[in-house]
């Protein structure tokens, strides 16, 4: 049991070391316009941000329309990279292009990123014939208390298993 509590204390201190709650607004790219008259114009948008320490982060990206309307933006890939490390995001909600309605969403699961400069790369096609459509992406830093609570839950599961083995 002492080993379990020591491991919990170590995990909590490491998890809380570089983490601080908040959202880093990484990329806001509006004003994507299709100059071809409906055939679509490809785009690539990048944004850099720096983490001061190794920390756990998650990410989200949404397409946004002009004046709150449906965006005519088709995101094709989202990735986060640092040197040779590349983390691909997953599309969690796509647009029904036969209806031209809805918002596209992409997400990055919570991962431990190393300190330093990171680059977010978003590629896609815009069909918007007016200014204002685009994408908005952010990286979320979890609250240290949430990480500590998760560690406490894992310790509880471990303690229950040890108790069952002893019986």
Automatic annotation (TrEMBL):
This is PEP-CTERM protein-sorting domain-containing protein. It comes from Pelomonas baiyunensis. Keywords: Signal. Residues 1-21 form the signal peptide.
């Amino acid at each position: 049991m002492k080993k379990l509590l020591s491991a919990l204390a170590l995990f909590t201190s490491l998890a809380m070391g570089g983490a601080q709650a908040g959202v880093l607004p990484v990329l806001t790219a509006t004003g994507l316009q299709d100059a071809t008259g409906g055939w679509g114009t490809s785009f690539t948008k990048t944004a850099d941000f720096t983490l001061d320490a190794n920390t756990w982060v998650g990410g989200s990206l949404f397409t946004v329309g002009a004046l709150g309307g449906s965006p005519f933006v088709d995101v094709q890939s989202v990735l986060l990279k640092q040197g040779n490390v590349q983390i691909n995001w997953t599309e969690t909600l796509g647009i029904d292009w036969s209806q031209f309605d809805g918002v596209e969403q992409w997400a990055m699961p919570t991962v431990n990123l190393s300190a330093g400069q990171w680059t977010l790369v978003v590629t896609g096609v815009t069909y918007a014939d007016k200014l204002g459509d685009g994408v908005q992406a952010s990286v979320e830093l979890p609250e240290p208390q949430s990480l500590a609570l998760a560690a406490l839950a894992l310790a509880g599961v471990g303690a229950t298993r040890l108790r069952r083995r002893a019986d």
